[in-house]
Write a structure and sequence with these properties.
By secondary structure, this protein is of the alpha+beta class. Helix content is 38%, strand content 15%. It has seven helices and four strands, in the order αβααααβββαα. The N and C termini lie far apart (39 Å).
Length: 200
Amino acid sequence: MDDQQREDRPQEHEPHDPQPEGHQPEDQQPEDHELTIESPQQYKALSHPLRQRLLLALGGQPATVGRLAALLDSRKGTVAHHLKVLQEAGVVRIVETRKVRGGSEHLYQRTTRRIAVTERGAGRDAGPTTALLKAVAEECANAPQEPVLVLRHLRLTADQAARLGATLQALVAEADEAPPGEPVHGVLVALYEQAAGRDG
């Protein structure tokens, strides 16, 4: 796709800092509420595997372009471009700008801890979901320990599916988190009805 090819081209400079020079750093933790993805710009921003991986990487502490590029084995210019797209969509923000030799260095962070995609609507495609699954697949492939990956198909009534979904969401939401410095783990939970529906 032409837009995606254009977006993948590396750029030599980091995004322009929209904050005035010497601004005070913002709170360096994502806000503890859910951001609902609704606009076409937000859908487009989430429809790229590298941008999904950037969001996964920014789930904890803020990071610079250089740190993210090293972590994701990507070029700084490419990372800077994709961060700008995420920033313009409102899912990533600059939390601090520091003076470094030769210019400024930005620290990026997600705007919220949780991001929710709205129900399928007019004009919506599977782009964000596909990009997320590709990003998770890359994360699993590079994980230092063998990941836990289970796919099971169950016949469920609507009530059973609703209860299972609520249980899974609560399990993740209530999980205890270790102090900073411990390894970050990704948790992906999915419950969906197969498109084929009921089998006879």
